[in-house]
Amino acid sequence: SEYNYQILDLYNFIEEYQPENIMDPKRDSLIVDTEILRKQINSTLKYTVNEPLVIDGHLSHYVVDNAIVLRAPPEIIEKRLALRNYSESKVTENVEAEILDVILVEAFELCENVFEIDTSGKDINTVAMYADYIISGLKQNKIDRLEKFRPGNVDWTERSI
């Protein structure tokens, strides 16, 4: 990788360090105590991870100080999740969450800084470049140069599922 970050896949971490988690069969998702998760990440990675660490996953905004929320058009999310054989109700829940900015709103409530990247029509390298730009701006305390990534540019409310 051309970027010098350690990546933590939050789902894999949860499976390894919280195997006692149970599934919510109605929502087809793990029930996770995010406060315990935050403490586990801090204690587990305290001495083993060199900065910077990127935590990837839908619950990551519960355990970080700065969040980059990747946004995708609802119809793309619907197609991706259908290809993964998600149940219709899980697809609908995820699409509605994207339209209503659920993760973005939660990140605002929990994180010191929140940024968003509209992934529409962008390949993974472009998205990674934008994320690197944001992380570099944070590390260099040049937050003023990151205004174009501040939330508010992505609005899916006119879309329907």
TrEMBL record:
One of its GO terms (molecular function) is ATP hydrolysis activity. Transmembrane segments: none annotated. InterPro entries: Adenyl_kinase_AK6, P-loop_NTPase. It comes from the Archaea. Gene3D superfamilies: P-loop containing nucleotide triphosphate hydrolases. Keywords: ATP-binding, Kinase, Nucleotide-binding, Ribosome biogenesis, rRNA processing, Transferase. One of its GO terms (biological process) is rRNA processing. PANTHER family: ADENYLATE KINASE ISOENZYME 6, POS9-ACTIVATING FACTOR FAP7-RELATED. This is Adenylate kinase.
